[in-house]
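Predict structure. Input: ATP-binding cassette domain-containing protein, 250 residues.
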Amino acid sequence: MATERTAPPLLKMEGIHKWFGKVHALKGVDVQVDAGEVVAIIGDNGAGKSTLIKILVGLIPKNKGTIYWKGERAAINSIDDSRRLGIEAVYQDQAVVNCLSVSKNVFLGRELTKKIGPFRFLDTRKMQEQTEALTQKLGLDIATVDQEVRFCSGGERQGVAISRAMYYQAALTILDEPVTALSLKGTKQVLEFITQLKERKIGVILISHNIGHAYSVADRFILMSKGEKVEDLPRDAVTMSTLEDMCVVL
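Output follows.
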C-alpha cells in the first residue's frame, strides 16, 4: 500500500509556459521538489533549464502556468519575491566579488548594520562572527573570513555562495552548474555541501550537464529537451548508465 503524502511539496511548478516572441521556450513544464530532496535537472543547451530557473527566482515572468509554495499559490515577480519565500540561487559564476572578504560576500547586498547615534554603520564584527559559524557548519576550511575571496579555491568560493543561502535560511537552494571549471577537490567539496543541505532538510535543484556528479547526490532526475520535460525519474528507477544513454538521445 502506497504511503500517503502528509504535507504538500515544498515547490510545485505546474504547466509552465514561456514564449520569447515566436519561440516556445517552455512547453507546459511541471516540477516538484520536496524538503530535503535533491532534484537534478539535466539537458543540453537550449533545453529550457535556465529559463525555468529564471522564472522561479523572479528574473523573468512566465506566460502561463502556476507556482505553488508549500501548498499555497505563489506570485513570483521579482528576486525579492523569491527570497521572501526562501528561494536562493547559486550560479555557475559563483556570484562572488573577488576583492571583498568572505564575510562581506556572504552579506553582499544585505549587509548588517548597527546604529550609533543618528547614524548607521556596517556591523563588521557581527558579519564576521556569523560567517565563521556558517563556514564551520559547512566544514569550509578557510583560514579567516577576513581574507579576500580571490585567495579562495573554486570549491571554497562555491562554499561562500552556499553559506549565503544558508544564512538567509533558504528552504530551496538552486545550484546552476556549481562544479563548472572546478578541480577534482573543489568538485568533491561542492558535492559534499549539497549532501549537507539535504541533511538540513533544504530542497535543492541541481542544474548539471555532468551525469556522474548529478547521480552521486540527486534523489530524482528531470530530463529536459527543447523546452519539454521528457522524463522524471526517481534514483532507484534508473542506473547512471541508463541515464547517460537517455541523455544521448535527447
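Residues 184-199 form the longest helix (16 residues).
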